[in-house]
Amino acid sequence: MSSTEPTASGRLSLPALGYGAANVGNLFRELSDDEAWAVLEAAWDSGIRYYDTAPHYGLGLSERRLGAFLQTKPRDEFVLSTKAGRLLRPNPGHERGGLDTANDFFVPDDLERVWDFTEAGIRASIAESQERLGIERIDLLYLHDPERNDLDLALAEAFPALETVRDEGLVGAIGVGSMVSDALTRSVREADLDLIMVAGRYTLLEQPAAAEVLPACAERGTGIVAASVFNSGLLAQSEPRRDGRYEYGQLPEELWDRLLRIAAVCKDHDVPLPAAAIQFPLQSDVVRSVVVGGSRPAQLTQNAEYAALKIPADLWAQLADEGLIPA
Questions:
Q1: Where are the domains of the chain?
Q2: Contact status, residue 164 vs residue 197, Cβ threshold 8 Å
Q3: What is the CATH number of domain 17-321?
Q4: Which of 19, 57, 202, 246 is catalytic?
């Protein structure tokens, strides 16, 4: 499955499937450099040509590893996005052997994340990401989780700064990444964004972004990149597990029942649940790409196969008829 459809502004075209590189920043478990390289190589060999990272991911480790890998590839053959809003600075509280596990990254906590929404901070973030990546051209820059700091401040300072660096050509396109629908909607309506990354809010299991985020994007001509489409892994296998991780806590009973119903429909149509999870967001006209993670080469190979699998229209129709996805 591929797409060359540009954003409404015509500034950027995105492949339909991308790789979110948090895992090569040692999210949830430590990977060696060789293991991380093998994951990225599997993504590339599977045809994935959009790669997303962030300073936040492994305190810069994801950017360094991803950049080292992509430096071996022709620059015009891939799309690269990273994020701004948090600068990495020396951590005065660092102790020998300390890890950043409070943020789920198994890396030394010798750095800390410092919020900075000023234009100077945005420019510093770009320059520091370019240095870690070893790649000058950043195709897409997202403001990362602005509501976790101060959304009003982001709208007053950070987004105008993003528009300025885009106009200057320092980045190709700009956007915002968040898992909070209200923050995404307000950002789309009050800033001139090319794309937004919707994390876990427009998935096969739950679609809170359908109420306001998608309509706002349709009105403004803003494209969507759907991330966390497996809902923390709940949709990553055809037979759901009750003990699966769900964001920051246990899976609510209502969502568990919904998950079982969705899995049953997929089984009736002989479609693997993860394939439906990857392809569901792309049924919307405003969704340009789906970004998936993965910490093992086989996961990337399998996800690319799921993305290319032909899914009958009857499956989507039945899910809609049963009220499991928007009609």
A1: 17-321
A2: no
A3: 3.20.20.100
A4: 57
